[in-house]
Amino acid sequence: MNQTPCVAIGLTLLSQPLLAAEGGFFEDAKASLSARNYYFGRDYADIVGANSQSRAEEWAQGFILDFKSGYTPGTVGVGVDALGLLGIRLDSSPDRVNTGLLPVHADGRAAAEYSRLAPTFKARLSKTELRLGELQPNLPVLTFSDIRLLPPTYQGVSLTSSEREGLTVQAGHLRSTHLRNEGGDGRMNAMLGHVPQRQAESDGFNYVGGDYAFNANQSSVSLWYGQLEDIYQQGFVGLKHSQPLGEWVLGANLGFFTAREDGDALLGNIDNQAFFSLLTARHGGHSFHVGYQGIYGDSPFARVFANISPLGNEVPTYEFAYTDERSYQLRYDYNFAAMGIPGLTATVRYITGNNVDTGLGFEGKDRERDIDLGYAVQSGVFKGLGIRVRNAMARSNYRSDIDENRLILVYTWQLL
Questions:
Q1: Displacement of CA 131 from its chain's centroid (Å)
Q2: Whether 281 contacts 248, CB under 8 Å
Q3: Could you tell me the CA-to-CA distances from 362 to 153, 333, 402 in Å, in that order?
Q4: CA distances (Å), origin 121, targets 68, 92, 135, 195, 361
Q5: How far is CA 305 from CA 142, 190, 308, in A?
Q6: What is the three-class DSSP state of 266?
Q7: DSSP-derived 3-state class of residue 96
Q8: Would you say 203 and 1 are in contact if contact means Cβ atoms under 8 Å apart?
Q9: pLDDT tens digits, residue range 162-192?
Q10: In angstroms, rounded to a whole number, what is the distance separating the alpha carbons of residues 334 and 319?
Q11: What is the pLDDT of residues 127-170, one digit of tens each?
Q12: Are the C-beta atoms of 334 and 285 separated by less than 8 Å?
């Protein structure tokens, strides 16, 4: 267990000015309850691989209780957060499981319900926070992947410091993970590209890094390191910039990852470099995006199972992150607030990839088209209700074709 980054950052705090916490444990407490109704249907038009299941289709109801206390007064404030999760099966059958919404029992049937309740203890000194327990980090090397019925979590310790203006530094050690469709927790696995590597388990994930915003917060740079113990270690450097230009706003999001095997190399040698770029132009309610992503080296992109990543061309259906893949994206977003309909948004996206080293003696190619519609009620009795519809079509010559539909309804009550 390597907690050196946390200790090092913690020691530097001794030289920082101490600020008394305002408010109090109960006075600043917040609590919300979200009800998430989720339909997920995925047709595998052309099965490639050992799994012969041609369809995954389930419907489930989830509840997310999120409590965050304030801090006790004084130089060092302490508090407790709690996360409660409950998933309920509404429709499923053994021939339609594995949507990622529900756990699957040994008999091939989805669980009727699953739940989890876990606390997080926290302490704050000046602008630095230590957290111990249930964690939901959102980092370039470990992106928060809330893309199914219930969010995943990790168990461990984290330290976040914002003592210097514009600079946020984080470090942590995670010893286990609770997956998005399970009630318990366990050791972590890796994914290489789109393929889970369940044959190897890690004792922990360590990370350290930071983001620095400057230029009146129009620009930021990031530098991160992540280590899935005895499997891989990964570095990341990123740059974001936003530039007003008349009635337009131009933006750029650039990032570079590099990864290699770590320690006992339980998955063997890993050699991967990944570059992504996403350029954006916004005018009124319109947003136009162009992206390029390149995967280099002898291995696919490495990540913790079953997370997405901040790669510019990654979407929840295909990742475009297999060995030697080059991919290109065109995307258009429209915010209907510009037409007097606040809360309504639409996205159309097309990604195509080629040059994939399939290891099968031919070049791999894939493509995907996505359409997303979302609406959040802005006022009245249904304020807090959000609706999202997603349709995706993905085609490949080396992995399964996919036709997918999702319908998600979320209603959130602010309890405190």
A1: 19
A2: yes
A3: 39, 35, 21
A4: 10, 37, 10, 35, 53
A5: 10, 5, 8
A6: coil
A7: helix
A8: yes
A9: 999 999 999 999 999 999 999 999 999 999 9
A10: 24
A11: 999 999 999 999 999 999 999 999 999 999 999 999 999 999 99
A12: yes
Judge whether 293 and 273 are in contact, CB under 8 Å: no
Residue type, 178: H
Q: Can you point out the beta strands (E) in 126-231? A: 128-135, 153-161, 167-178, 188-192, 195-202, 205-214, 219-228
Edge to edge, what strands does the sheet with 188-192 contain? Answer: 195-202, 188-192, 302-304
Helical residues (DSSP H) of 286-362, grouped into ranges: none
pLDDT at residue number 414: 94
Both tokens assigned to 25: 């444990």
Query: What pLDDT sits at residue 45?
Result: 66
Q: What is the pTM of this model?
A: 0.91
Q: What are phi and psi of 397, to 5 degrees?
A: -105, 5
User: Count of residues for the chain?
Assistant: 416
Q: Read off the tokens for 173.
A: 């050690």
Q: What is the pLDDT confidence band of residue 49, given thresholds at 50, 70 and 90?
A: low
Report residue 213 CA to chain centroid gap: 21
- Asked if 151 and 134 touch (Cβ cutoff 8 Å), the reply is no
Distance, in Å, from the CA atom of 334 to the CA atom of 286, rounded to the nearest integer, reads 5
Q: What is the mean pLDDT of the chain?
A: 93
DSSP state of 21: B
Contact 230, 360 (CB under 8 A): no
* Cβ neighbourhood burial of 68 (10 Å; 0-12, 13-18, 19+): middle
* Contact predicate 128/109, CB 8 Å: no
Closest CA to 211 of 138, 112, 151: 138
The closest of 412, 320, 402 to 366, measured between CA atoms, is 320
Give the C-alpha distances (Å, rounded to integers) separating 361 from 230, 322, 367: 31, 15, 20
CB 328 within 8 A of CB 356: no
Instruction: Return phi, psi of residue 387, to 5°.
Output: -130, 135
Structure tokens at 257: 């990852």
Single-letter amino acid, residue 357: D
